[in-house]
From TrEMBL:
Keyword field contains Disulfide bond: no
Pfam families membership: HTH_18
Protein name (record): AraC family transcriptional regulator
Matches recorded under Gene3D superfamilies: Homeodomain-like
Domain HTH araC/xylS-type as annotated: residue spans: 54-150
Lineage of producing organism: Bacteria, Pseudomonadati, Pseudomonadota, Gammaproteobacteria, Enterobacterales
Length: 150
């Protein structure tokens, strides 16, 4: 979110009444223009079709903080880690670790929307430290989690 958009929304949030005056209508137009120029972020995450991989994906969706290593997930699904790696990328377009990071970030968005503190989210989702979580969030969404929730 740009500073201009943030300030325009802050000003618009204080408006009273139902009818907009001429300057409010212009500001509303600026808000719409700014929103239209924001980069698009695809929040969807493809699920694998292979039943073994789907089982892993569903387990991670339910518990994104699960810290099992790739080798442990492969053993749990009854396949080699190499097969898991190859099939996961073929079916989702992401490496296993990229997919896991994205499912954690999607959960982070839900928790931010619910008002949970950034530090608690990072620790709940299995990040070793808050800085690592913030850096990944910024790389993915272009802003920090603290600014995102404003």
């Amino acid at each position: 979110m740009t500073n201009l958009l943030r300030e325009a929304i802050t000003r618009a949030a204080a408006w009273q009444g139902v009818e907009l005056n001429a300057s409010q209508k212009r500001l509303a137009g600026v808000i719409l223009d700014e929103i239209g120029s924001l980069p698009r972020v695809n929040l969807g995450l493809p699920m694998p079709q292979d039943s073994r991989l789907l089982r892993i994906a569903q387990a991670l969706s339910a518990n994104p903080d699960d810290g099992r290593r790739l080798e442990e997930w492969a053993a749990w699904a009854g396949m080699s880690s190499r097969t898991l790696t190859r099939r996961f990328r073929a079916e989702t377009g992401f490496s296993f670790n990229e997919w896991r990071q994205r499912i954690r970030l999607l959960r982070a968005l839900e928790l931010l929307a619910a008002g949970k503190p950034v530090t608690a989210i990072a620790l709940d989702l299995g990040y070793d430290n808050v800085s690592a979580f913030i850096a990944l969030f910024r790389r993915m969404f272009g802003t920090t989690p603290g600014r995102y929730k404003i």
